[in-house]
Write a structure and sequence with these properties.
- The complex is a heterodimer of chains A (511) and B (420).
- By secondary structure, chain A is mainly α.
- Chain A folds into 3 domains: 169 residues, Transcription Elongation Factor S-II, Chain A (Up-down Bundle); 68 residues, no CATH class; 179 residues, no CATH class.
- Chain A contains 25 helices and 5 strands.
- In chain A, a hairpin with a 2-residue loop joins β3 and β4.
- Chain B has 2 domains: 286 residues, Alpha-Beta Complex (DNA primase, PRIM domain), CATH 3.90.920; 108 residues, no CATH class.
- In chain B, strands 1, 2, 3, 4 and 8 form a 5-stranded antiparallel sheet that branches. A 4-stranded antiparallel sheet of chain B has the order 5-7-6-9, with helices on both faces.
- In chain B, α9 packs antiparallel against α10.
- The model of chain B has no long low-confidence stretch (mean pLDDT 90).
- Classes of the chains: A mainly alpha (511), B alpha+beta (420).
- At the A-B interface, α9, α10, β3 and α22 of A face α6 and α7 of B.
Chain lengths: 511, 420
């Protein structure tokens, strides 16, 4: 585990568990130096992965993060995965130096660093890892009481102190006006003045008073400051780990680390799975097999003969994913666009981008079709047709459209309710059910929607498919959640776990 | 002699003259090199050229002012874009493994086309004095927010040459912001969200107004009636009225407003009817607390700045340099003073042929007077209507220079002590 090879670290980490882990919450500044068996290494990695995966799943359900509903859902999910203890330790820390507590802290420490190794390798992995770890950190931080927080700050040399009473009085009206939530207790709360870059989330959503580059945050929102410190540290550490990763050349570890994430990323739909799709059939497919987001884009394109930049990207990449060839795509866009512009203009301004999507221009990367997450999070402005219809439409307009598409009023009602509860992907699944007469396996990607629809309509043989993700009902019992799906059709380069090598049987020390 | 109308076909003839005699290389270079307080700040900056026939060259970089001047005059680009500062020279990017943008001004781009659903005077690329008022408001609101809330001082506002404005935030701390901080600032300043399938695009959902929104409201309020109700006539037709009414979520209230409006004849009386119905609901406590800013929501939806936030979020997004010529209109991308934004008239921005005509006139008059010597001393742009824009730009650069003067002295001083 001595990845960083920083010798000075050694003396700090040598000590009893109580000295090593004085606090329930850690900033993970110092990597562990210890010997563990390969199977322990693997178990730790998988357990933490399960925890992070639970967080992701619960987020998808749409409850407000860190709300009671969210926590209950997380507790349920983690219990289901056999992580009840982990949940309890994270949310109700005893903060006493019991042996169980100390062991838990050690496991927490080790597993965090193991996953750093696995998740430092690309931008996307890093982003996912940071997001999940941050949620875990926040969850834990919010479970601390005032004394524990103070202790934690002292231990980690984080000195923040509230603004003086005079300063506070001087800006009180602004604090009243701009601090999110009830004003009742504001005058009693301590306020901290921090650079706005420390509390981006609060500033982004205009929840705090911002002046001259500083945000004034009430003590109740202090977790935001901490998490941004944590985010920055973790981000840097991951980059550092990435740079030193080539030093890890242990043939037992490398494949394990590389394979760890693959099963969680889901498919990327860069290369179409079915046969080619003919552009003459797109209108038909739009009615029968498109998810709503793509159907809206398709119809907008047919009506206006134009889509704005992100609409072209979202739809263009989807088309690539379902199997429209570059030649056909070019013909399709040209035919539409040239109804409102001359061919010259199209060739100059848009043909490049079509080829770009297919990796024929610019950086020459084969771009990935957008997933639901990406589409839901995209920013949509006036004149735009892209985004997720369930999120980016008024319920009323959505309901009208659905009715016009011939969806029964019962389904329209159900979908509207789901949308109001922010369950966009579940709503999308309902739309699938309404149009196909059978439930979907959970919608995570527009291209997955299309594939499933094609199978459901009998246009395509059902490919023996492992569940897309953990949340589907039929995940195999007693199996590692991270066992990769058998690879279909093409060989995934990173699938190095494959086959029958049971790593856990090799019981060797990883020193 | 009257100046002819600009035609894009004349660009190849005019651009060489413009770049030779008019483009203000001096202040431009002083700005973009930021005193070279950090070494190679200018050399590591990406520029890109758009040449005739839409040939596009990215990742150009220059060693110094002369190099830049020579290259621009040689290529006569239709458009010059400015990108980010990298750790190495962009032209040599293939020689390093990691080529990531390091720093970049925080930029904002506001384009009139994003206002198409709230303006009726023009659409698409066209603008007139009526819809230009949207830009004036956007400029005032953003300028105030960037200065007061974020503490930025060095803001360069530039007319984009056709239908929009750009804002370059050049403070040291702004140039160093990372991507997530940039998107935070951009989203903080973005209130109008939602696409074609969302009628109500501003939802405040709060029982109090955040100070940045209150400030925007105070800027908008005095102008709203003349701008939207009169100029844009947002209550002029039954369709337009129903569009406004669709922003009222409560059915009963909407019907009441509709009824009250129908009793009124003029648009401004209809607007007064709307506000008075909402007021009376608030007074009677019939409006939920977090819905009480309904009138404000409507006003904001019609006027709050609509940013192309993807331009602001990225570090490596290119943005057209000031003093370029817009290839379609021939107008100069000219800096303007945000405090006097309402006096800026995009219709009278000089075009390239007008400028070239002006130098000719000036030279002719001077030669007639036989004053050869003074003729040489005057910079060419001083002889034309470009001068006003350059003066504003120079003023901006001078203030910026004050911020690094201290640093340069410090560097020199530390060099001096080393000698001992």
């Amino acid at each position: 585990m001595d990845i960083s090879r920083r010798r000075k670290v050694t003396k700090v980490v040598a000590g009893s568990l109580a000295e090593l882990y004085p606090h329930n919450l850690q900033m993970y500044y110092i990597p562990p130096i210890t010997e563990i068996s390969l199977s322990e290494f693997e178990d730790l990695a998988l357990e933490r992965l399960k925890v992070l995966r639970c967080l992701e799943l619960v987020n998808l359900k749409g409850a407000n993060k860190f709300s009671d509903e969210w926590k209950a859902s997380l507790c349920e999910e983690m219990t289901k995965q056999g992580l009840k203890n982990f949940y309890k330790m994270s949310t109700a820390p005893t903060c006493k130096q019991t042996d169980a507590e100390l062991q838990y802290r050690k496991k927490d420490h080790l597993s965090h660093f193991i996953l750093r190794l696995a998740y430092c390798r690309s931008d996307e992995l890093r982003r996912w890892f940071i997001a999940r770890e941050l949620e875990l950190f926040k969850l834990r931080f919010m479970s601390l009481n005032a004394d524990e927080i103070r202790e934690f700050l002292n231990m980690n040399n984080l000195s923040y102190s509230p603004i003086s009473a005079e300063e506070k009085d001087a800006i009180m009206p602004s604090l009243y006006e701009s601090t999110y939530g009830s004003t009742a207790l504001l005058s009693e709360k301590d306020f901290f003045r921090v650079p706005f870059t420390d509390v981006l989330e609060l500033v982004r959503s205009r929840k705090v008073f911002v002046q001259a580059g500083y945000a004034y945050i009430p003590s109740s929102e202090f977790v935001a400051v901490m998490s941004s410190v944590y985010r920055a540290t973790l981000g840097q550490a991951l980059m550092m780990t990435y740079r030193r990763l080539p030093n890890v050349d242990d043939e037992r570890l490398v494949p394990l680390l590389k394979g760890l994430h693959t099963s969680y990323v889901g498919e990327d739909f860069k290369t179409p799975k079915g046969g080619e799709i003919c552009i003459e059939d797109l209108d038909k497919h739009a009615r029968a097999s498109y998810p709503l987001c793509m159907r809206f884009l398709h119809e907008a394109l047919r009506t206006h003969h134009h889509l704005r930049h992100f609409g072209r990207l979202q739809y263009g990449l989807f088309l690539k994913g379902i199997g429209v060839s570059l030649q056909d795509a070019m013909r399709f866009w040209r035919e539409e666009f040239t109804r409102i512009m001359d061919v010259d203009k199209f060739e100059k301004e848009h043909a490049y981008n079509v080829r770009y999507n297919y990796g024929q221009e610019g950086k020459r990367t084969n771009y990935t079709p957008y997933s639901c997450m990406k589409i839901i999070c995209s920013s949509v402005g006036p004149g735009d047709h892209h985004g997720c219809p369930f999120k980016h439409s008024d319920v009323k307009i959505l309901a009208n459209k659905l009715q016009a598409y011939g969806i029964s009023s019962q389904y329209v009602g159900e979908i509207s309710e789901l949308v109001k509860g922010n369950h966009y992907q579940v709503a999308c699944g309902k739309y699938f059910e309404a149009t196909h007469g059978k439930p979907s396996n959970g919608i995570q990607h527009p291209n997955q929607y299309f594939e499933e629809s094609q199978v459901a309509l009998g246009n395509r043989p059902a490919i023996k498919q492992e569940p897309m993700s953990q949340n589907s009902q039929h995940s195999q019992p007693n199996n590692y959640p991270s066992k990769p799906k058998p690879v279909k059709q093409e060989k995934v380069e990173e699938d190095v776990w494959g086959g029958d090598i049971d790593l856990s049987s090799i019981d060797m020390d990883v020193a | 002699m009257k100046v002819e109308e600009f035609s894009p076909d004349s660009l190849p003839d005019l651009l060489p003259l413009y770049y030779k005699r008019l483009f203000p290389y001096g202040p431009f270079h002083r700005w973009i090199s930021y005193g070279n307080v950090e070494p190679n700040y200018f050399q590591n900056r990406e520029f890109s050229f758009t040449l005739a026939e839409d040939i596009y060259i990215r990742f150009k970089s220059f060693i110094g002012r002369e190099d830049m001047e020579k290259e621009i005059q040689k290529r006569c680009p239709y458009k010059i874009d400015i990108g980010a500062v990298y750790a190495t020279r962009p032209q040599e990017r293939h020689m390093t493994a990691v080529f990531q943008p390091q720093e970049r001004e925080l930029v904002f781009d506001i384009d009139m086309t994003d206002y198409d659903d709230v303006r009726s005077c023009c659409s698409g690329a066209d603008i007139c004095n009526k819809c230009w008022k949207f830009m004036v408001l956007a400029c005032k609101i953003l300028d105030a927010a960037l200065r007061e809330d974020f503490g930025y001082e060095h803001l360069l506002w530039v007319f984009s040459g056709r239908r929009g404005v750009h804002c370059w935030v050049c403070d040291d701390s702004a140039r160093k912001l990372d991507v997530s901080a940039r998107s935070t600032v951009a989203e903080y300043l973005q209130l109008v969200t939602g696409g074609e399938n969302k009628a109500k695009k501003v939802v405040l959902n709060s029982d109090k107004l955040h100070h940045s929104i209150r400030r925007a409201k105070n800027i908008i309020e005095p102008q709203f009636e003349s701008m939207c109700v009169e100029d844009q006539d947002i209550l002029g037709t039954p369709e337009k009225i129903s569009k406004v009414l669709s922003l009222v979520p409560d059915d009963q209230m909407r019907q009441e407003i509709e009824k009250e409006m129908s009793k009124q004849n003029t648009p401004s009386m209809k607007w007064a009817a709307l506000t008075s119905v909402v007021q009376s609901w608030i007074k009677r406590g019939q409006l939920k607390k977090w819905r009480q800013f309904l009138v404000e929501e409507i006003m904001l939806q019609y006027t709050y700045p609509r940013l192309d936030i993807n331009v602001s979020k990225g570090m490596n997004h290119l943005l057209k340099a000031p003093f370029c010529i817009h290839p379609k209109t021939g107008k100069v991308c000219i800096p303007f003073n945000p405090r006097a934004a309402e006096k800026f008239n995009p219709m009278t921005v000089p075009t390239i042929n007008q400028l070239i005509h002006e130098i000719g006139q000036f030279d002719k008059e001077q030669t007639q007077e036989g004053d050869e010597v003074s003729l040489r001393r005057v910079k060419d742009y001083r002889k034309t209507s470009l001068n006003k824009g350059v003066v504003i730009f120079e003023e901006f650069v001078r203030k910026l220079e004050d911020t690094w003067k201290g640093k340069q002295i410090k560097i020199e001083a530390s060099d001096a002590t080393l000698k001992f």
